[in-house]
Specification:
The complex is a heterodimer.
Chain A (H helix, E strand, L loop, with lengths): L1 H8 L20 H17 L9 H9 L13 H6 L21 E2 L14 H11 L2 H9 L7 H4 L11 H8 L2 E2 L7 H16 L6 H18 L5
Parallel strand pairs in A: 1-2
Chain B lengths: L2 H5 L5 H10 L8 H5 L3 H30 L19 H7 L2 H32 L6 H13 L2 H12 L5 H8 L15 H26 L3 H9 L4 H29 L3 H6 L11 H10 L4 H31 L1
Classes of the chains: A mainly alpha, B mainly alpha.
Chain lengths: 228, 326
């Protein structure tokens, strides 16, 4: 999902704000192509050898072992980095995704869902009520979890409570999410295929990659009956 | 076991009369057991379970896949009604540019890996067909790679090729290479990396087949050639190669079928990457079926692959028949 950060920064939009699922010219805008080109330049210059298919944990290993001086990763890993004996404490600084023409950061993590046909639906809802309590959320944050509780986020001194607390606050103001659709997996796979083919395999141009991605997404939404 | 229980299955009349004599009250027993089983019934009894299993796990899934290939069914949405699409899925598969690219990748993998395996396997078989010291040790050592699980081989070679601490680059540096090879991350090298690993793993299998072929050549043919003062090349060209040819074609057939549906080894090594330069047809099929959940489309793709493999096998078997008739 790192690539979406550079796409957002130069004008990538998922759809026409006035017409849902109308993606042509939004997904594959000239700005989005510029953002994708920037991502490829970063990949070509600054990725450790053999990281063409690296996952989040491989990125962490590359950073902790000193192969790279800087990495882009989900904020959920920051508590672990801050506590790491080799790179933690004063040795690592954190900052939000820098701005391009626009300023957005990719939203990560997963929401809690309750399956409507579950036998234990009541129990799950009870758990959510318990988890949302301010005292529990405070403990959750202190233990290295992340919270959306306004009471905690707006409490005095929160931004200095950890080395990454301010980054979290600043990033949450600019987050943008990927498609929240039942066909999430297909949409994400299409993104990975098109981005990988351009960035890693060097096939075609950024514009061609995004044009193809837009067509792939159209196909998915047509199959879902959301586009004609 | 009591004699009755044992002889119940007997089909010989003598055996049946012996049972009757022993068991006077056997008149109430079922007629089937009284008369014994016919040869035909006995044959069905043995073959039946296998036929049932074949029907359940091979024929029924095949027929069901054929039916699904004409629909828009999605396995991850079982509640939705599937719509009959006719041959639309087949048309989409055959017009899909990405699919033809995966077929090209598969053809590259197939051609090079099988060519190398046949050449190296034949060379090794010729070497092992001679008597020399530690012959048994080398025969066993060469067979080791094919005894390993493909997932293990994939994982092992992944670390072997690792560009920063892998042994492959250490060897390359020792031999004078200035830079590191990113065998699994480079778009030019990775198609060759999967060929190399498959060749390492399956050359012993080809060697084993061809060694059996070499050992089946009657020695008197070579003795006759010696009398005729034939050169080594003539003996190879006129005797060895023609006699081993059926085994070469068999090896070609087995390896073609296996490599056409190659999945585990390459999935472990590259997962189809970088980009999609090592995405074989089988990996693409798995993605369509179990990641994108386009079950109908994937079924059409699977049927096309099945027909392709079947067609290739048919051609090879016909060629084998012709070679055997010569």
């Amino acid at each position: 999902m790192g690539v979406t950060n550079t796409l957002y920064a130069y004008g990538f939009e998922y759809q026409n704000p006035k017409k849902p699922y109308d993606m042509r010219g939004f997904v594959n805008s000239a700005g989005a192509a510029k953002g994708l080109k920037l991502y490829k330049d970063l990949y070509d210059c600054c990725t450790p050898p053999g990281h063409s298919n690296a996952y989040m944990t491989e990125d962490l290993d590359a950073y902790k072992s000193g192969q790279v001086a800087m990495q882009m990763n989900f904020i959920a890993f920051f508590p672990g980095i801050a506590k790491d004996p080799n790179v933690g404490g004063e040795k690592t600084g954190f900052f939000p995704i820098p701005a391009g023409d626009k300023h957005f950061a990719q939203l990560g993590g997963q929401g809690i869902s309750v399956v409507k046909y579950s036998d234990k639906k009541e129990m799950a809802l009870e758990y959510m009520k318990w988890f949302a309590q301010p005292t529990v959320q405070k403990k959750w944050w202190d233990g290295g979890g992340f919270t959306c509780s306004q009471a905690i986020l707006n409490a005095p001194g929160f931004d200095k409570s950890t080395s990454y607390a301010k980054v979290f606050l600043d990033s949450m103001k600019i987050v943008k999410d990927f498609w929240a659709e039942p066909s999430y997996a297909q949409l994400l796979l299409a993104t990975q295929n098109r981005v990988h083919d351009y960035v890693v395999a060097g096939k075609g141009t950024p514009q061609q990659a995004l044009d193809a991605l837009e067509k792939d997404w159209e196909e998915v939404f047509k199959e879902d009956g959301k586009l004609k | 076991m009591r004699p009755l229980e044992f002889t119940r299955w007997a089909t010989r009349p003598g055996a049946r009369s012996a049972v009757r004599a022993e068991q006077g009250s056997n008149a109430r027993a079922p007629a089937l057991f009284k008369q014994g089983l016919s040869d035909r019934a006995l044959a069905w009894l043995f073959v039946g379970p296998t036929v049932l299993l074949l029907l359940a796990f091979n024929i029924f899934p095949l027929l069901w896949t054929i039916w699904l290939s004409f629909t828009n069914y999605r396995a991850n949405r079982p509640g939705l009604d599937s719509v009959w699409l006719g041959i639309a899925n087949y048309r989409r598969v055959l017009n899909d540019e990405a699919l033809w690219e995966h077929m090209r990748v598969t053809a590259h993998f197939l051609c090079w890996s099988i060519t190398l395996q046949l050449l190296l396997g034949f060379g090794l078989a010729l070497l092992l067909n001679r008597k020399f010291r530690s012959h048994s040790f080398w025969s066993t050592a060469i067979l080791l790679p094919m005894m390993l699980a493909p997932a293990v081989v994939g994982t092992f070679w992944k670390y072997f090729f690792e560009p920063q601490y892998g042994i492959f680059n250490a060897i390359a540096r020792f031999l004078g290479s200035a830079g590191n090879f990113t065998m699994l991350g480079d778009t030019q090298l990775s198609p060759w990396a999967i060929v190399l690993v498959d060749t390492w793993m399956w050359t012993p299998y080809v060697m084993l087949l061809l060694l059996a072929g070499l050992r089946s050549i009657p020695p008197y043919l070579y003795e006759a050639a010696e009398i005729d003062r034939a050169s080594e090349w003539t003996k190879f060209w006129r005797i060895t190669l023609p006699m081993v040819m059926p085994f070469i074609i068999l090896a070609l057939l087995f390896r073609t079928i296996e490599n056409f549906k190659m999945f585990d080894l390459v999935d472990n090594l590259t997962n189809g990457g970088p980009g999609s330069v090592t995405e074989l047809a089988s990996i693409s099929l798995k993605r369509e079926a179990f990641e994108k959940w386009r079950t109908g489309y994937a079924s059409a793709f699977a049927i096309i692959l099945f027909v392709s493999i079947y067609g290739l096998s048919l051609v090879t078997v016909r060629f084998l028949d012709k070679v055997k008739q010569r």
